[in-house]
Amino acid sequence: MKSILLSVALLALPAFSPVALADVGGSCHFHGKKPATEAVVTDCANQRRAALVKSGKLESSWQAAKLEKLELVDGKKGKEWKVAFSNPAATDKSKQTLYIFFSHPGNFIAANFTGQ
């Protein structure tokens, strides 16, 4: 009888456990110190930009923005990827360039219009 109860409990357990769902950009989380390639950073930057548009933090015209520059810079904690997107259709002319920063392995750090 105990084995039947145990079996039923083990089979029912997944139904009560929380499900982890990844948000847009969820595939761009890396462990370790292996440097990300430019292709990986470009893909992650595009995903992050799309997530910012979807969440309403950027206006919809940013969806069509062009990647202007991708470079490895010296950040506060070592090397960082700095990605610049250009959007001439932005309503605020002082915010026509979006900068997205990633750690050297490719994890998102921040996004802003100052590049700092």
Which structural category fits the helices and strands?
alpha+beta
Proportion of residues in helical segments: 25-40%
Query: How would you describe the shape?
Result: elongated
Order of helices and strands: HHEEEE
The radius of gyration over CA amounts to 20 Å
Q: Give the tally of structural domains.
A: 1
Uncertain regions: pLDDT < 50 for 5+ in a row? Answer: 19-25
Strand order of the largest sheet: 1-2-3-4
Strand count, sense and barrel status of the largest sheet are: 4 strands, antiparallel
Total strand count, please?
A: 4
Strand percent estimate? 25-35%
Whole-number mean pLDDT: 83
Instruction: Calculate the terminal CA-CA distance, rounded to whole Å.
Output: 65 Å
Helix segment tally:
2
Describe this protein's structure.
The structure is a single chain. The protein has 116 residues and is of the alpha+beta class. The protein has one domain. 28% of the residues lie in helices and 27% in strands. It has 2 helices and 4 strands. The chain has a 4-stranded antiparallel sheet, covered by helices on one side. β1 (66-75) and β2 form a beta hairpin. The longest helix has 17 residues, at 38-54. It is elongated, with a radius of gyration of 20 Å. The termini are far apart. Residues 19-25 have low confidence and may be disordered.
